[in-house]
Amino acid sequence: MPESREPGRPTLADATRGRILFGGDYNPEQWPEETWHEDVRLMREAGVNSVTLGVFSWAKLEPRPGAREFGWLDRLMDLMHTNGIGVVLATPTSSPPPCMGRLHPETLPRDEDGRTEWWGGRQHFSHSSDTYRRYAAAITEDLAARYGSHPALTMWHINNEYCTYDWGDEAAATFRRWLRQKYGTIDALNEAWGTAFWSQGYDGWHEVLPPRHAHYMKNPTQVLDFKRYTSDMLLECYLAERDIVARHTPHIPVTTNFMPLWVGQDAWRWVEREDVVSVDLYPDPRDPFGAQGGALVQDLTRSQARGPWMLMEQAAGPVNWRGVNHPKARGLNRLWSLQAVARGADAVCYFQWRQSRQGAEKFHSGMVSHAGEHGRTFQEVKQLGAELARIGEEVTGTHSGAGIAILHEWNSWWAGAQDGRLSCEADYPDVLRAWHRALWEAHLTTDFAHPEHDLSAYRLVVVPQLYLLTDAAIDNLVAYVQGGGTLVCGFLTGIADEDDRVREGGIDPRLRKLFGIRTLHEWWPLDAGETAECDGFRGTLWSEEIEADADAVTESVYKGGELDGLPAVLRKGRARYVSTLPEPGALTDLLATVAAEAGVRPVLDGLPARVEAVRRGDLLFLLNHGREPVTVEVPGTHHDLLTGATVTGEVALDRYGVAVLRP
Ligand code: GAL
C-alpha cells in the first residue's frame, strides 16, 4: 500500500496562498449575464475568493458534437479575474450533452437489470465506453489549452462525485479485461471466486459477466471484484483527464470531489493520485449526531490528505434530497464550517453560489438564497466570509494530528456487506460511526488509516470492524502490537481473506493468537433493539461464543442466556477484542480508559458534553454544538482570533458559538 502522493506535484497551498478558500460551485449558465455582475458584487461583499465553474456545462460548451462555445466562459473567467476571484475549473464530464447519448447509445450505462440510464438527469455516462472517454478527453484537452494560462485559474476539478456503475456490454468487456489482468488464467478466477459452489465454473473468459440480475444470491467474490473494478474504471477516467490538464499546467493542482464516506470508490487508492483531497459534506441539521458525522468525514479526509484538505461542497441551508429537508438554524452554518477548519480544511466551499430557480435542485439552498442578499442565509455567509479572512493566515497550512487511528478500508466494507451474511443489522458504516462517536464523545481526536499503513506513529489503533483483511494487514496489526502499540478491535474482524474466503477457524489464527481467542464456536447476532447483558455494560448488534486462551484476561463476560460467563471483552497484553458493540456510553468509557493507558489524553479536561475541542497547529478551536450557552475552562491566557479578545482561565461560548484561541 503506497503512502505517498506523486512527488513534485503542486498542492492545496499553491491555490490558497495563505487564505482559506471561500466560495462554491457557480452555475452562471442558469442566469442572464446581468445577474453575473450582481453575483460578483455580492461575492466581493461576502469575501468569496474562489468559485468552481463548469461542473455541469458540457451541453453549453459542446451543444453539438465537436462544436465549442467558449465565449461565455471566456467572459466569466475574465470577470472573475478582474474581481480577484480564483477559478476552480471543472471538466464537465459528469453529465454529457444529450447529443452524445442520442448519437452513441453505447455511452449510456445499464443497471443490473439491463435498464438504460437515459439523459434527462445527470451522470449518464458509461465509464467503460471508448466513445465517452474520447469525447471527455477532447473537451478536457480544449479546456486545458484555452484556460491553462488564464490568470484566474487556481485548480482543476475533474468530473464530479464519481459514483456510477455499469453492467452493460462494454462494461462486461472491460470487466473481463480487468479480471484477466488480475488472475491471468480462468482457472485462477474459478479458484478465487469459489465457482465449485452452485455449478458456477467458467469454461472461458467469454462466459464471465458483471454480476447482473440473478435468480438468487450472487457469487460474493464476483460482486467484490466488480466493486474493485468499478472503482478502478472510474479512477482510469479520472487519470485520463488528470493527465491532460497536468500536461498543460503542471503547476496547477488537480482534485476530484468525494462524497462523504461513499461506498463506491476505494478512496485510499484515489488519494495517491490527487494533489488536493476534497469532499462534499451534508450532515442533516436535525441529526443530533450531525456534528459527529461531520467530524468523522473531516477526520477521514484530513487523514487521506495527510494535511490540509478542501471542503468542496456543503449547504448554506437545506438540501432537497432527504425525505424532509430542514434549514440550518441561525449559527449552524458558521459552526460546521469552522468545525471543518478546525479539523484541517483550508477551503470552505458550497454547493452552490446562487440558489437555482429551475431544475431538480431549485429547493436546494445556495449561498444566496431565493430571499436574496437581505435573506438570513446570505447575511450569515457574509459574516463567515469575513471571519475566515481574519483567521486564514494563521490557520492555513497547519496540521491537526492525532495519537489515535481508526482503521477503515473499502474492500472490507464491500465484502462484509454482501447477501448471505448472518446479520444485516451489523452495518459497516453504522459500526464505524459508533466507534468514532465514542472517541468524539471522549474528546479524543482521531485520524483514519489503512490497515496496511505504517501505524507506528499512533499510540492507539482502533478497528471497529474489518471483515476482510489481507495477510499483509494482519501481519501489520501483529507487528504494531509487538512494537508497543495498543490495539482495540471490534467483532467481525479478520474473518475473510482477499478473495472473501473464510479464514481457518473463523478468525485468522494470527489474530486469535494476538487477542487470546482459543476457539470461536459460534456467532450470536442480536436483533435490532435487542441487547446482551455484559459485566459492566450492555452489548448491541452482536455477541460471540468464544473461548479464551489461558494467557488472556477476560475483562467482561456475558451475563445470562446462552453465552453466560463467556468473554465479551478479552485482553492479551496491549491487544483487546470486543465481541459485541457496547452501548454508546460504555464504548466511550472503554475507549477513554484504553486511551489513557496508552498515554493519549483528551484535548482538554472537563469539557461540557456538547463542546468539541480540536487543536490545529498552535491553535485551539472550541465549538459549542449545544443550543445553550456554556463556559469552558481553558487554563492560561489566550487570544481569540475571531473576536480579538484576550481570555484568561475560561471562555464563554454562545449557542453554536466558536472560539479560535492562540496561546
Ligand atoms: C452533490 C453534487 C452537487 C449537488 C449537491 C446537492 O452531490 O455534487 O452538484 O447536486 O450534491 O446537495
TrEMBL record:
UniProt domain Beta-galactosidase trimerisation: residue ranges: 402-600
Domain of life: Bacteria
Segments forming domain Glycoside hydrolase family 42 N-terminal: 25-390
Enzyme Commission number(s) from the entry: 3.2.1.23
Gene Ontology CC terms: beta-galactosidase complex
Keywords carried by this UniProt record: Glycosidase, Hydrolase
Catalytic center residues: 161, 313
Residues involved in substrate binding: 122, 160, 321
InterPro entries noted in UniProt: Beta_galactosidase_C (IPR013739), Beta_galactosidase_Trimer (IPR013738), Class_I_gatase-like (IPR029062), GH (IPR017853), Glyco_hydro_42 (IPR003476), Glyco_hydro_42_N (IPR013529), Glyco_hydro_b (IPR013780)
Family label: Belongs to the glycosyl hydrolase 42 family.
Protein name: Beta-galactosidase
Provenance organism: Streptomyces sp. R21
